[in-house]
Amino acid sequence: MKEERILIVEDELSIAENIQEILELLGYVNIDIANSANQCIKVIKKYRPDLIFMDIKLKGDKDGIELGEIVKQMVDAPLVYVTSYSDPTIIERAKRINPAGFIVKPFNTNDIHAIVEIVLYNKRTKPSTETAAVKTANESPYLVTDAVFIKADNAFERVPYNDIYYVEANGNMVKIFSKNREFSIRKSMKEIEDILPSQYFLRVQKSYIVHLGQIEFFNTKEITLKQGAVVQVGRQYYNSFLSKLNTITES
C-alpha cells in the first residue's frame, strides 16, 4: 500500500474514475477527486496532495492552466496535465507553469504507471521548495518592510501597509484608501499591484486591490472590510482570492 495522496481534477466523472481505478491497481489508496476549481482548492487546503492530475480543458471560470497557476502557489506538488489536445498554443500556455508532465487521452495503465513513478520519485529525491518559496516571498529589497512611502503635497508620506484598506481604479488614476487619508495617484492598477507586497495585498477585481488583513467577511460576490467598505469580487478572481485564505467549511 502506497501512502502518497493523489488528487484528480477532472469534470468528466468516467475519466476521473478511470484514473482512480488505475492508481488503485498500482497500490495508491489516498485518492481524491475534484470536478471544479473551487472543489480543487478545498481539497488542497484540507489534504495537501503529493501529486495532482489535472484536465487542461476543465469547465468553469478557469481552465486547467489558469487553475494550475493558483495551485502552484498553494502547494509544492507536481502537476500532471491530462489532455486530448495537441494545440501548440495550449501547450505553450501550459509550459509556463512548468508541469511535471502530460498524459494524452486515451491513456492506459502503463501510461499512468510510468508518469506516477517518475514524478513521485523526482519529488522524493529533490528538496522541498516550500520553505524556499516562503522565504523568497517574504524577502524585500527595501530596508523599510512594513510601509510604503506615497508622494503627496510635494513630500513622501509614510503609510504602514496595515493602514491601507484597499485600492480602487478611477479612470487613469488610482485611489488608495488608508486609515488617515485617501491618496489619488496617476498610476495603473498593474503598477500598484506590483508595488504592494503580495503577501498582504491581492487583486480581487479589475478595479480593486484589498489588504487581506482588513477583511471582515466575504461571499462569492463581495468583500466587507473592517472599516465598513464593500468591495466587489470578480468571478475570474474569486478562486485565486479563496486560495489565499485559511477557511473552514461544512464539507
First CA to last CA: what distance? 27 Å
**Strand arrangement across the biggest beta sheet:** 2-1-3-4-5
SS class: alpha/beta
* Residue fraction in strands: 25-35%
The helix count comes to 8
Number of strands: 15
The largest β sheet comes out as: 5 strands, parallel
Spans of at least 5 consecutive residues with low confidence = 130-137
Task: Return Rg in Å.
Answer: 21 Å
What gross morphology would you assign? elongated
Mean pLDDT: 90
Percent in helix: 25-40%
Q: Helices and strands, in N-to-C order? A: EHEHEHEHEHHEEEEEHEEEEEH
Describe this structure in words.
This protein is of the alpha/beta class. It is built from 8 helices and 15 strands. The strands form 4 sheets. The chain has a 5-stranded parallel β-sheet, sandwiched between helices. The protein has a 5-stranded antiparallel β-sheet with strand order 10-9-8-12-11. Strands 13-14-15 form a 3-stranded antiparallel β-sheet, with no helix packed on it.
